[in-house]
Amino acid sequence: MTKLFSNAERAEVLTQALPYIRQYNGKIVVIKYGGNAMVNDTLKHQVMEDIVLLHLIGVHVVLVHGGGPEITEMMARLGKKPEFVDGLRVTDKETMDIVQMILAGKVNKTLVSLIETNGGHAIGLSGMDGSLIEAEPKDPRLGYVGKVTKINIQPINDLLERGYIPVISTIGWDSQGNAYNINGDTAAAYIAGALKAERMILMTDIAGILRDPHNPETLISSITPHEINDLRQQGIISGGMIPKVECCQEAIRAGVRNVIIMDGRIPHSILMELLTEEGAGTMVMGGAQ
Asked: CA-CA distance, 178 to 249, in Å (whole number)?
């Protein structure tokens, strides 16, 4: 088999990554994982490899995941048609049971297994475990869709201190024991804010924030929360990108240093973002850089 890189070239790559390894060693990075990067098995394995590598070099990774396509697939198998209001899944009691089964069960444990088989150590949690995500109804029209009221970071910190990667499904609960479906991006923002994470990464199906949605070359590499408001007023940020940038702004307000919106369909995009000078996607900048 022909070598793609010589040993000297491999060593040079590692040397160039050293400043970034120092920067993130011992720091918390929250990764929101979903979309096509989760559905494609090859990409799924690569994402888990990236996460394990970061873990092994001393980055405290917290993985927050969705699972919308898997939920929709299971609903179809059970003869239940999904409904959406303002982009959010209407979640009646039966749908909530499906959400809980798929997110806290199948998807969560599959990701834990992939991390373990790649040499990492992970423990899966739902937002109900240890009262991690407390919630209340977001809108009566949506049923059991929740609005986050409190994040209890103790279970996450306990796992990080013991060398585990927390893998969190975004199901919340209230004091009456009701379970709620929480938007993954929103949950990740609240979790990252509560942890005062160094960085939050939102893995999406687009390159980042584009000035022209039809032209990837118009990618905005960095932006401030104030500039986001300006672009929304101009109509440059619209549609499905609005809730994503709102989550970024929420995370920054809560104390996250910066947030990345990036294309999770690109192989090893997490490592490109964290361990290279060029980075990937759009950085929403918080405090002093």
From this structure: 29
